[in-house]
Design goal:
With 85 residues, this protein is mainly α. It has one domain (3-77). It is 74% helix and 0% strand. Helix 1 (3-22) runs antiparallel to helix 2, helix 1 crosses helix 3 (55-78) and helix 2 packs across helix 3 (55-78).
Length: 85
């Protein structure tokens, strides 16, 4: 996958993640982990840059990025808080 295609995918994930970070639903470390994990997952799903060739395809992938972010944040919320001890 080309560098520009990876950048496009990362941009999509960032767009979906930013509101969760701004409203403090997730912290900096969670943002970084989710961004990395979802971007890598989407690299595999997209396959190559031709999948990002037209606006309709980009909108579908943006929707998928938003859904993956939603799932990841929901998963974090469902985990019990870590306790030190």
């Amino acid at each position: 996958m080309s560098y520009s295609a990876k950048e496009e995918i990362q941009r999509m994930v960032k767009i979906a993640l930013k509101p969760r970070y701004v409203d403090k639903t997730i912290n900096k470390d969670q943002y970084t982990d989710i961004n990395r994990d979802i971007s890598r997952k989407m690299y595999d799903l997209v396959g190559d840059a031709s999948a990002l060739a037209d606006q309709g395809a980009r909108e579908r992938w943006q929707g998928m990025a938003a859904e993956e972010v939603r799932k990841a944040v929901a998963s974090l919320a469902a985990q019990p808080a870590a306790t030190s001890g």
